[in-house]
Structures are given as C-alpha cells and as structure tokens.
C-alpha cells in the first residue's frame, strides 16, 4: 500500500450522507490534490495550463489553507513541502514565477537538501 493510500485509509470514513465523487469523498480528493502541491513539476504544470491565473482556482488555493491546521495537518504525507508550496501559491508573484524551469529546479534542489539535512539530524 502506498504511503498516500495509508493516509487515506486512516482518514475518517465519510458520513453516509456525504456525496461521493467517482467513489471518493471530498476529503479524499482534496487530500490527494493538496499533497500533489509538494511536487514542483506539478506546480509548473498548473502554471503552464494557465490555472494559476484563474481567479476561481486562486480562490480554491486560498480555501485549501485549512490543511495547515489540525486536525487536517496530520493526514499530510509530506507536510513540509506541501505546506510551503501552498503558502507560496498564495502569492501572485510566485504563481507567475513557477513557470520558470530554473525556479522549479531550485525548489527540487531545496527539497533534496532539506531531506538530507533532516536525515543527518535524525
């Protein structure tokens, strides 16, 4: 079972009256999406599709801020990069700059450095 599946399996089952979307609850869908924000290449893809310039999508990113607080925080597999990128996506300048392959590469390198540092300290 993938780590993401474990996080979803540990989530509370949706209430019986909660609507399902393709067999998944809103919680599960939003969890998967917010975790995908940890990937700099995915952020670049969103920007290349012009989603980061659409007011409705920007509002959705603001709505997703609830993942930064308990009890939702505990369900994130990679809270560091997920929350960092969610915070950066609140800034218009970042939403424009993520189109740059150089910025994407810098984010990847920063995350690798953070992981190495964490493992050395642990």
Blueprint of the fold:
Blueprint: H1 3-10, H2 26-36, H3 40-48, H4 55-63, H5 79-88, H6 92-97, H7 101-121
Helix pairs in contact: 3-7
Family: Belongs to the Mediator complex subunit 31 family.
Subunit structure: Component of the Mediator complex.
GO cellular component, one term: mediator complex
How would you describe the overall organization of this protein?
- The protein has 122 residues and is an all-alpha fold.
- The radius of gyration is 15 Å and the shape is globular.
- It is built from 7 helices and no strands.
- The model is unreliable at 1-10 (pLDDT under 50).
Question: Outline of this structure?
Answer:
This protein has 122 residues and is mostly helical.
The coarse silhouette is globular
In the CATH hierarchy, the architecture is Orthogonal Bundle
- As for the number of domains, it is 1
- Tally of individual helices: 7
- Report the order of strands and helices: HHHHHHH
Briefly note the CATH topology name.
Answer: Arc Repressor Mutant, subunit A
What integer value in Å does the Rg equal? 15 Å
Give unreliable regions as ranges. 1-10
- Overall pLDDT, averaged? 88
**Class from secondary-structure proportions:** mainly alpha
Oligomer: single chain
CATH evolutionary superfamily = Mediator of RNA polymerase II, submodule Med31 (Soh1)
User: Which CATH class is shown?
Assistant: Mainly Alpha
- Largest sheet properties: none
Protein name: Mediator of RNA polymerase II transcription subunit 31
GO molecular function, one term: transcription coregulator activity
Pfam families: Med31
Family: Belongs to the Mediator complex subunit 31 family.
């Amino acid at each position: 079972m993938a780590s993401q599946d474990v996080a979803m399996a540990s989530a509370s089952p949706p209430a019986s009256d909660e609507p399902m979307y393709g067999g998944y609850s809103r919680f599960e869908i939003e969890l998967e999406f917010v975790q995908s924000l940890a990937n700099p290449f995915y952020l670049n893809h969103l920007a290349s599709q012009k989603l980061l310039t659409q007011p409705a999508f920007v509002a959705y990113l603001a709505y997703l801020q609830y993942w930064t607080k308990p009890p939702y925080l505990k369900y994130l597999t990679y809270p560091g990069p997920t929350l960092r990128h969610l915070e950066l996506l609140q800034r218009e300048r970042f939403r424009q700059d993520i189109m740059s392959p150089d910025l994407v590469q810098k984010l990847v390198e920063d995350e690798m450095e953070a992981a190495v540092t964490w493992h050395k300290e642990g």
